[in-house]
Design a protein that fits this description.
- The chain has 14 helices and 15 strands.
- The protein is α/β, with parallel strands linked by helices.
- The radius of gyration is 22 Å and the shape is globular.
Length: 397
């Protein structure tokens, strides 16, 4: 790695106190870059609940119009002073983690002064456009804006090869490279007493298996399939508990459906757990992470479970299951409730198998954020060298 310390703009449409997988990813980038390599600055829309003084690096906020959902701001990056602010900060590279407002903001910056730009495509944005945008005409416009934002980047990164289908759905057929996310949970041994504390807290008997879901409570993460599979388990006479860790826009509807199908005693909603060690105790206490989402492009929770030696059940062919070998580093099923039910029935009482597969996942699929950010930082130099090796005419985006 070159000795020069880079100044990196890490841009996203949401930042703390709005917490999701992408904002967590950017925090890991910023923490490690600032501590070990160079200088990081967060670039994000304004949030009325922001407490940016808590972070050891600058957070630059541009205007937002309003917030929606769980505090997601709608950025308004059109004022020229916002662009000149970025120019005056003399960044070496701009790294966007969202192809919407902040990526468009970086395009406006480049119209004033050219900077190399990386875009990491984290999420299947076609889901959000299809579910949140009401009219066909506005959907077409949203797709067009996102596509131009993606194409304007000097290099596009994805967190898994399966993301190419989502990029294709957005209209992008260009080149990309895979830059995996890491895991901020360390590989540590959780004590028996800490694991038992989860059972005591939720009144779960020692011999009852614990299933776990961690993530935003959105139907599009295939949560209905998990609940339907659990109903089949109950009907088959199997005692278990499903811990649902998270919050989200469909939370009330999911709780209502849980009551409707008679799983009030079996499903426990914990809300979002912000303390990372506490979350790791939940992973360690669980027998199996059940994560049949096709929405997630990487599935950080799979690596988080692996950090604690906990196996995951995933849909075969999903991005979250990329690199998973059934029965060796995880378990695979089809995208339907009966397949999830059948797989759980086959493995949930085999503690030796679950432990062995969890340990293999820990050894083979776990990657720390230190290693992931080191790879990304080294790649920044490649992007910058490519950018500087060719003349730049009028900016076409």
């Amino acid at each position: 790695m070159e000795n020069k310390k880079l100044k990196v703009a890490l841009g996203n449409d949401a930042w703390y106190p709005t917490i999701d997988g992408v904002s967590t990813t950017i925090k890991c980038y910023a923490d490690i870059i600032s501590e070990k390599y160079g200088e990081a600055v967060i670039v994000t829309p304004d949030n009325p609940n922001a407490q940016d003084y808590k972070f050891p690096y600058p957070v630059y906020r541009y205007k937002s119009l309003f917030t929606f959902g769980e505090g997601y701001p709608v950025g308004w990056p059109f004022k020229k002073v916002f662009s000149t602010d970025i120019v005056d900060m003399n960044f070496d590279i701009l790294h966007s983690h969202c192809p919407i407002a902040t990526s468009y903001y970086f395009r406006r910056v480049n119209r004033i002064k050219r900077f190399p730009v990386v875009l990491t495509y984290h999420t299947k944005f076609e889901y959000d456009i299809e579910t949140r945008v009401p009219s066909y005409a506005i959907k077409r416009r949203a797709y067009g804006m996102a596509l131009n934002n993606i194409k304007s980047a000097d290099e596009v990164w994805v967190t898994s090869r399966g993301t190419r289908e989502s990029l294709h759905n957005m209209g992008y057929d260009g080149d990309f490279i895979v830059m995996p996310n890491g895991c901020d949970l360390p590989i540590i041994s959780i004590s028996d007493n800490e694991r038992a504390s989860i059972r005591r807290k939720h009144g779960i008997p020692e011999d009852v298996p614990i299933l776990l879901f961690v993530g935003r409570l959105n139907w599009y993460k295939n949560i209905r399939l998990i609940l339907d599979a659990c109903r089949m388990l109950k009907n088959a006479g199997k005692d278990f508990r499903l811990l649902m860790v998270g919050m989200g826009p469909d939370e009330n509807a999911i709780k209502k459906y849980t009551r409707k199908i008679g799983l009030t005693n079996e499903v426990i909603f914990t809300e979002q757990i912000l303390d990372r060690h506490e979350l790791q105790v939940y992973y360690s206490a669980a027998d199996l992470l059940v994560f049949p989402s096709l929405f997630d492009t990487n599935g950080l929770v799979v690596r988080e479970a692996a950090a604690s030696g906990t196996s995951a059940l995933l849909v075969e062919g999903s991005c979250a299951a990329e690199g998973i070998v059934d029965g060796e580093t995880g378990f695979l099923c089809d995208e339907n409730a009966h397949s999830i039910y059948t797989k759980i029935q086959q493995i949930i009482d085999n503690k030796d198998l679950l432990g062995r597969v969890g340990l293999c996942a820990q050894n083979d699929i776990y990657i720390s954020w230190e290693d992931a950010v080191k790879m990304a930082y080294e790649r920044y130099f490649v992007v910058i060298d490519k950018f500087n090796s060719k003349p730049h005419g009028e900016y076409k985006y």
